[in-house]
Design brief:
Blueprint: E1 18-31, E2 37-42, E3 47-52, E4 57-63, E5 66-71, E6 82-87, H1 88-97, E7 104-107, E8 114-120, E9 123-128, E10 133-138, E11 144-150, E12 155-161, E13 164-169, E14 177-182, E15 189-192, E16 197-202, E17 208-212, E18 222-226, E19 235-239, E20 246-251, E21 257-262, E22 272-275, E23 295-298, E24 302-306, E25 312-317, E26 324-328, E27 333-346, E28 358-359, E29 370-377, E30 381-389, E31 394-403, E32 406-413, E33 420-428, E34 431-439
Antiparallel strand pairs: 1-2, 1-27, 2-3, 4-5, 5-6, 6-7, 8-9, 9-10, 10-11, 12-13, 13-14, 14-15, 16-17, 17-18, 18-19, 20-21, 21-22, 23-24, 24-25, 25-26, 28-29, 29-32, 30-31, 30-33, 33-34
Length: 441
């Protein structure tokens, strides 16, 4: 796969102004079922590579500021399952600056086969397919396990709404229940749904939506909605047909939602279904002859469809218009998750700054508590020195006053800044210079 030229930080040197970061609407994608690669693909079809990741990855998920890759056990040895975790700011930093980043790898017990993940506050919940249960991990305590529940036959999908954790019991294709539990995984109880419940998502009203694949034979697929009310959950079902296996919720950007369901197992159309999450009525205008996808990711204007047959990612608009192939890879698209990638931009073309107006390299850099930087002026003038984060937001003002000609040593304190990459920008008489700094705690 090719790599696009990245927007290097050095291109921001000597620019007359900085525009707050723009975003690229797109998806993180796992390409390949075995030893997959992670890429970020936007609506233009351009993409950035992040390299090989978890060798038996099953799902991509985003919670708070992190991207999670759920890595199932090796099917042959039943070993190696766990989570791969990266901060989204580090991934954006890599795209914008080429800055190396590291994955945090959390090992889970062999033979448990982690399958899906959902988050609430600092906690993440992971279903263990072969382990027949779900565990709760604390991200602020090195992902230590703080709770668990078992006795659920081969759970797959999981989601959190309010104070309820909902888990789908696939039971090797014969399951017919979803389980409600509290946030500490206590008091699990079964809620009857269709056959072979798999993925779960949550709509804007907090309702759970579960896709039930059926038994791949005489029992066909259904969508179920569960109102998350303790003790008296209300369920509504919608017959779909076929063997649907994945679902997501997309938005029109104005608060209106549709549930989109994909069916890549089907031998004949329909491959794609859409329905209203409130009324649970099928959208008859859905272009169901389109690829249903192995994976789906809903965005703010449509849905992204990942195919394990054509190895492609497609985009389909909220009103079912604008169906297009964004890119075809050399392996199956195994999982997608929507994310607006922040991209630094500038508001004027590159301009050469006279050497007599300079900003030195900071020292030390990277730094922990404080760093020093020198501003040189060729004549007396008013100068402003500010610090910006990678999203183009002003994080601190270091200097804002008139200075005499010469070199002025400035101190940048890190106590009020979060760890990460920043840009120090000096302005004087419509001239601008800048230098990158990195704060590491």
């Amino acid at each position: 796969m090719r790599r696009l030229p990245i927007l290097l930080l050095l291109l921001l040197l000597a620019l007359p102004g900085i525009t707050p970061a723009q975003t690229a609407h797109g998806v993180f994608a796992l390409v390949g079922f075995s030893n997959p690669e992670l890429v970020y693909l936007d609506l233009t079809g351009e993409y950035h590579e992040f390299g090989p990741v978890a060798p038996t990855a099953t799902a991509l998920r985003i919670h708070q500021d992190n991207l999670y890759i759920v890595n199932g056990d090796d099917w042959g040895t039943q070993t190696g399952g766990g989570l791969w975790i990266a901060e989204l700011t580090d991934l954006a930093d890599y795209v914008n600056f080429g800055t190396p980043f590291d994955w945090t790898v959390v090992d889970l017990p062999d033979g448990t086969n982690p399958y899906d993940l959902a988050g609430y506050e600092q906690y993440v919940y992971v279903t263990l397919q072969t382990g027949n249960g779900v565990i709760k991990l604390d991200s602020e305590d090195s992902y230590a396990q703080v709770a668990s529940a078992d006795g659920i036959g081969m759970p797959q999908g999981i989601a959190v709404s309010g104070t309820i954790v909902c888990v789908a019991e696939s039971n090797l294709g014969n399951g017919q229940n979803a389980y409600f539990m509290d946030l500490d995984l206590n008091s699990p109880y079964a809620i009857p749904v269709g056959t072979n419940p798999q993925q779960i998502t949550v709509d804007a009203s907090g309702n759970f939506h579960i896709i039930c694949t059926g038994n791949y034979g005489d029992i066909t697929g259904e969508a179920w909605k569960i109102d998350p009310t303790w003790n008296e959950p209300h369920t509504t079902s919608l017959a779909l047909g076929g063997t649907p296996s994945t679902l997501t919720i997309m938005s029109d950007g104005e608060g209106n939602e549709k549930v989109v369901v994909g069916d890549e197992y089907a031998a004949n159309p329909p491959y794609l279904y859409g329905y209203d999450p409130d009324e649970m009525t099928l959208d008859e205008t859905t272009p169901n002859y389109r690829s249903g996808g192995w994976s789906l990711a809903g965005g703010n204007s449509g849905v992204y469809i990942g195919s394990a047959i054509s190895n492609s990612v497609y985009f389909l608009g909220y009103d079912w218009s604008g169906y297009e192939s964004l890119h075809t890879f050399d392996a199956a698209v195994a999982s997608l998750v929507y994310f607006d990638m922040p991209l630094l931009t500038v508001d004027e073309p590159y301009a050469v700054v006279p050497a007599t107006f300079t900003l030195s390299h900071a020292w030390p850099n990277p730094f922990n508590a404080s760093t020093s930087i020198a501003l040189t002026l060729d004549r007396p003038q008013h100068a402003m020195v500010s610090v910006y984060d990678i999203l183009g937001r002003q994080a601190a003002t270091i200097l804002n006053q008139s200075l005499i000609a010469g070199t002025h040593r400035l101190q940048i304190e890190g106590h009020s800044l979060a760890s990460g990459r920043y840009l120090v920008v000096a302005r004087a008489d419509n001239r601008t210079v800048s230098q990158p700094i990195t704060l590491v705690r």
